[in-house]
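Workshop exercise sheet. Pairs work together: one partner reads the sequence aloud, the other fills in the structure field after running the prediction. Swap roles for the next sheet.
Pair: D.N. / O.F.
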Amino acid sequence: MSRRTIKTINWAALAERCVDSEKNALAAFKAKSDQYLRRMTANPESPPKIDWAYYRKTITTPGLVDKFQKEYEALSIPFPADKYTTDIDAEEKIALQEVDKFVQTADQEIEKMRKEVARVQSLLPFDLMTIEDYYIMYPENAIDPEKPTVYPHDLSDNGSEETEKSH
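Structure field:
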């Protein structure tokens, strides 16, 4: 694995999706990410080659340079194993499924609300409506002409059957 496998981040797309209250946190995160990326790219991908012949000429102790060369070439520092990408990809799939489900639910609600708005817009405006029109459209909320009430037309103050049952 090498540096080339690092995915590029579309910061503009993230900024578009970010709410205004989180823009400062996103900017701080981007600055920190850029700082790490600069530090990583400042170093070469592979270590510089050692001129062992130069050291053999300069160091007089027999076998010392050969010993160091053998140990240096045997040294292997493994790149950390990637244990998290599969977990992150699995979580991303789950999140995308949840987002799709939310979008479908939201689209259904939007369609339902559009129908309700169309229904309300097709009604007779309230300022042109008579008491009879209101009673026909909303019988559960309207004053029943068969059971007249007194202002403020509240069931608790008018001696209706419901208040008499509760006493």
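Discussion prompt: Helices lie at 11-17, 23-42, 52-58, 64-74, 85-122, 131-137, 161-166. What would you look at next?
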